[in-house]
Write a structure and sequence with these properties.
Elements (H helix, E strand, L loop, with lengths): L2 H26 L11 H30 L1
Length: about 70
């Protein structure tokens, strides 16, 4: 076992927990789709949530690349 693998386990568990949390938010929000009568604040919230999920995917991908380099 490589030394970096020990640290990877908690990180991967964190990633999985966050993935589950964001999947639930996406499902509850109609995949970040505001209703037809949504106010500007709700539209902004849904936009930011979708952007956050995209950034999270990039973050996880970068961490996996860095881990593979160890």
């Amino acid at each position: 076992m490589r030394s970096g693998q020990i640290k990877t386990v908690p990180m991967m568990q964190d990633h999985e927990n966050e993935c589950k949390r964001m999947r639930k938010i996406a499902a509850l929000s109609g995949n970040y789709t505001p209703g037809p009568d949504a106010c500007t604040a709700n539209k902004a919230l849904f936009f930011v949530l979708e952007e956050f999920e995209s950034d999270r995917h990039k973050h996880i991908h970068l961490e996996k690349e860095l881990q593979a380099d160890d």
